[in-house]
Amino acid sequence: MRGGWKALLFLVAYWIVANVLEIPVVVAGLALKIDFRPWVQFKFGPLLGVLAGVAVTAAFLAIERKSFRTVGLNLNARWARELALGTLGGIVIMVATALALLSLDGFHWVRNPQGSLSGIVLGLLIFLAVALNEEIVYRGYPFQRLVEHLGPWPTQLLLAGLFTLHHWGNPGIADATPTLKAWTTLNIALAAVLLGLCYLKTKSLALPVGVHLGWNWAQGSLLGFHVSGTTVVQGFWTPSLHDQPAWLTGGVVGLEGSAICSGAILIAILGLLLWRPKKAAN
After folding, report:
1. Cα–Cα distance for residue pair 18/112, rounded to 1 Å
2. pLDDT exceeds 60 at position 40
3. For the chain, percent of residues with pLDDT exceeding 90
4. What does pTM read for this prediction?
């Protein structure tokens, strides 16, 4: 079977399994007359997504008689180092974007009365699950089989489009003005290319998972901005946006809706293109 069909079947299987895993939670909510949907979407949902992604990946690899190592999930010391390096890189991108915006009088920080250390730690765990979930789906088995079939850059463009569409349903993005939505779309697509390069350079999911984790965690839990148009977890401080265009500040989307973020991502992409890592892990 060709790589394109394998990727399509994987995505269909993942969608089915992920929705099946949510059924017990929905049924429990109906029985208890409690709306668990926000919990599923922002807390348990990412974990269920990880379980679904791992289960479907295991099934497809079993058919091919291959191990998880072949899709970049070789959990060893090198994997841990690349995860840490990627997390630091994602944090740097967001902090640099925030400081640049601060220098342009885009916002100022105010104390968040609801912020707490436990909230920051919870944010780390939630965003780790989000990163694992989305990287297993978008840079894992489907991405790799498409690379084998189409080549790296056609695959990058195709998966970047799907990755962007996946985020369009988020509240802040769905309700954004056309200009803000256009910048957000560009930035999410560029981020997808950046994450794809992280895999292509290392042949491991550790670096893209780390960048994804650091990006979201810094943006939301550490800096207090919205994350892809959602308000999952905020830290000790929250930004008060000034009277500047939303395409500059990111508005309700967060820093990844800002034109400044575009520059930061392009610099990171250029750095990855120039980077010559040591021999990739098997």
Report:
1. 34
2. no
3. 67
4. 0.91
